[in-house]
């Protein structure tokens, strides 16, 4: 193996560690911040905060989504750290062997040593990064569950405030005890054989 091949190997290790993670992280951050923005719009425009119930569900969902975003950002930093660690291991090997020219060769035993070192770093880094990704995904899903429950409860509550709402905007309420029914602001009272409109 030549030093040139070792450098190519080092570049492949770096790409192997960061390739799949970079796109995943970008998409995840895009989705999680979009979800936070949607939830803020939801509480601002659809369900007013003054009338919302179970606000702790909303705050819990925001906490989980924010935590997921933070974990994913930490994953990105951890990935960069692991890549640097791989580069450092290869560079340290080159310094110890005093081989820097592309044409310099290394023995089979030396190649096995450096590949063993880098594979150990790569394997442990991938395990840690995978766990961090799973943790971020779990937090995000929990945030979605809490937000979904908050949304469902509050939309249901909004619909219960005016259960007899018709598509044309009429609200009809009937009280069987007083024999009164209301259509929007008009009150109808039934007495014997007459209807009183107020």
Structure description:
The chain is an alpha+beta fold and 198 residues long. The chain has two domains: 3-161; 164-198, no CATH class. 71% of the residues lie in helices and 9% in strands. The chain is built from three helices and four strands; from the N terminus they run αααββββ. The protein has helices spanning 3-46, 55-97, 108-161; strands spanning 172-175, 180-183, 186-191, 194-197. The protein has a four-stranded antiparallel beta sheet, with no helix packed on it. Helix 1 packs parallel to helix 3 (108-161). The protein is rod-shaped, with a radius of gyration of 32 Å. The model has no long low-confidence stretch (mean pLDDT 82). The chain crosses the membrane at residues 53-77, 132-156. Keywords: Membrane, Transmembrane, Transmembrane helix.
Notable traits:
alpha+beta, 4 strands, transmembrane, membrane
Task: Kindly summarize this structure in a few lines.
This protein folds into two domains: about 160 residues; about 35 residues, no CATH class. It has three helices and four strands; from the N terminus they run αααββββ.
Mean pLDDT: 82
DSSP helical segment count: 3
> Share of helix among residues?
over 70%
What gyration radius follows from the Cα positions, in whole Å?
A: 32 Å
Total count of domains: 2
**What gap, in angstroms, lies between the N and C termini?**
98 Å
Strand line-up in the sheet with most strands: 1-2-3-4
Main sheet: strands, sense, barrel: 4 strands, antiparallel
């Amino acid at each position: 193996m030549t030093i040139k091949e070792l450098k190519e190997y080092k570049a492949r290790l770096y790409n192997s560690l960061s390739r799949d993670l970079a796109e995943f992280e970008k998409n995840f951050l895009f989705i999680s911040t979009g979800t936070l923005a949607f939830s803020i719009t939801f509480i601002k425009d659809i369900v007013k905060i003054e009338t919302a119930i179970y606000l702790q569900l909303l705050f819990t969902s925001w906490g989980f989504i924010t935590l997921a975003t933070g974990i994913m950002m930490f994953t990105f930093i951890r990935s960069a750290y692991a890549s640097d660690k791989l580069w450092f291991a290869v560079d340290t090997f080159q310094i110890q062997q005093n081989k820097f020219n592309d044409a310099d060769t290394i023995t089979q035993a030396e190649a096995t040593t450096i590949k063993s070192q880098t594979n150990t770093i790569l394997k442990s880094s991938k395990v840690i990064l995978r766990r961090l990704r799973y943790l971020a995904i779990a937090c995000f899903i929990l945030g979605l569950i809490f937000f979904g429950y908050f949304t469902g409860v509050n939309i249901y509550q909004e619909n219960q405030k005016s259960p007899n709402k018709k598509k044309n905007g009429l609200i009809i309420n009937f009280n069987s005890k007083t024999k009164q029914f209301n259509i929007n602001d008009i009150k109808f009272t039934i007495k014997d054989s007459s209807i009183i409109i107020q």
